[in-house]
Amino acid sequence: MERNWKPNVTVAAVIERDGRFLVVEEETADGLRFNQPAGHLEEGESLLAASVREALEETAHHFVPEYLVGIYQWPRPQGDITYLRFAFGGRAAGEEAGRALDTGILRAVWLNLDELRTCRERHRSPLVMQCVEDWLAGRRHPLELIRHYDA
User: Which cofactor does it need (predicted)?
Assistant: First the structure.
């Protein structure tokens, strides 16, 4: 049987405050890893809505997307999955204290650039650092680049 290939569409939130970036420490098949608040696009959901939802579910912070940082295509080295990531930059607009985080998320933590670089071997993928580097390089594209049409 021939398999139809398709990428896994994901979203990520790049949130910087006072020189620190909001990341999550999560359990993965490869052990504990750091990632931006990120996850899969769900059926019927816009990319922007997905980024807001994922940030809240994984960090208990309300995310306000302001820019598209970039679109990233990453085939995992194992060759079984290709991710198509839409990374949004924006701000945290409050935290829901006491909110339970998604299963597998150990904690949300604010790390500065040096701390992120130091733990690079524990990043979920090379996209984590690339998104931060792109944000720091001033890559900020208008959200109007993305159009969502309801069915």
Answer: Mg(2+)
| DSSP single-letter state for residue 60 | S
Structure tokens that stand for 80 in this block: 């079984």
Residue at 27 is within a domain: yes
- Total domains present in the chain: 1
- C-alpha dihedral sign at 147, 35, 140, 20: positive
- Give the pLDDT confidence of 31-85 residue by residue, as tens digits: 999 999 999 999 999 999 999 999 999 999 999 999 999 999 999 888 789 999 9
What is the SS3 assignment for 58?
helix
Please check whether residue 132 lies inside any domain of the structure. yes
* 94-101: long-range pairs with CB below 8 Å, 24+: 94/61, 94/62, 95/59, 95/60, 95/61, 95/62, 96/56, 96/60, 96/61, 96/62, 97/60, 98/60, 99/56, 99/60, 101/24, 101/57, 101/58, 101/59, 101/60
Return left, alpha or beta for 57; rule: phi > 0 is left, psi -120 to 50 is alpha, else beta. Answer: alpha
What's this model's pTM, rounded to 2 decimal places? 0.94
